[in-house]
Amino acid sequence: LDQLQSGQHPLPPEFALQERHLRASIALQRDDTEAVFELIAPSDFELLADGFVRQVHLAVLGFAYCAAGRYPQARALHGRIVADLAHAELDADMTLIAESNLLLGHLLEGDNREALRTGNALVARAEAAHGRRSVSAINSAAYLADALYEADRLGEAQEVLSHRLDLLRLTSPEPMVRAVIVHARLLATQRSHEEALRALVRDEARCRQ
User: Fold this and answer.
1) What is the pLDDT of residues 3-24, one digit of tens each?
2) Residues 89, 55 contacting (CB under 8 angstroms)
3) Cα separations in angstroms, 101 against 124, 133, 144, 161, 198
4) Average pLDDT over residues 25-53
5) CA–CA–CA angle 78, 91, 126 (5° rounding)
6) CA-based, 20 to 30 A from 114: which of 5, 17, 135, 144?
7) Angle 1-73-114 from CA coordinates, rounded to 5°
8) Residue 145 pLDDT greater than 90, yes or no
């Protein structure tokens, strides 16, 4: 992006808002939530005409609020998803990813009951709309598996992760790490601590590739 903007043919001014969202997405992958908040704000939503970019806006900003511990803002943003997006957009893959931030916020706040309620509904919607191995379904499934494990519902946690771990190991860091840890904890509980440790070593090696 820097090279593009400093070159002979920089992005036209009308793409400035999209560029900021792309930079905010990169900042989020670097755990730099302050940069995210400097680049985008809730008010930007009104300026975005493209539906997908609006969904990305809600997903990136919502995750940044959760990562920064700003859970009330994350919940308020979720309300905006329901209120401001067109009905046809509510079950879009990226919208469901944005909604999973509400589930993540419940987990981080320690409200496991709400995490279970939200997670079960969200995974069901994602599977119905896009399939069990869609991005939105595996993203929500990782968070739901965490909540199920904490509720000592081990069989359900294992089922939620079943036939998804291969994709979860390739997804964004937060759901990937949660899925890997829950899987290891299930192995330790149901098989042996040694097998759980071996699985963690293998997963660590994959992450470093």
Assistant:
1) 655 666 666 666 778 888 889 9
2) yes
3) 16, 19, 12, 19, 30
4) 91
5) 95
6) 135
7) 115
8) yes
pLDDT interval class at 104 (50, 70, 90): very high
Confidence label for 170 from pLDDT (cuts 50, 70 and 90): confident
Residue that is written with structure tokens 């036939």 in the block: 163
Contact 137, 126 (CB under 8 A): yes
The Cα–Cα gap between 185 and 137 comes to 21
Whole-number Cα distances in Å, 154 to 5, 101, 158, 194? 50, 23, 6, 19
Residue environment code for 128-146, b if the CB has 16+ CB neighbours within 10 A, otherwise e: ebbeeebbbbbbbbbbbbb
Alpha carbon distance, N-terminus to C-terminus of the chain: 24
**Do residues 145 and 182 lie in contact, with contact meaning Cβ atoms separated by under 8 Å?**
yes
Note the pTM of the prediction, 2 decimals: 0.90
84 phi/psi in degrees, rounded to 5: -105, -20
CB 11 within 8 A of CB 17: no
Three-class DSSP category at 2: helix
Token duo for residue 146: 């965490």
Instruction: List pLDDT tens digits, range 172-192.
Output: 889 999 999 999 999 999 999
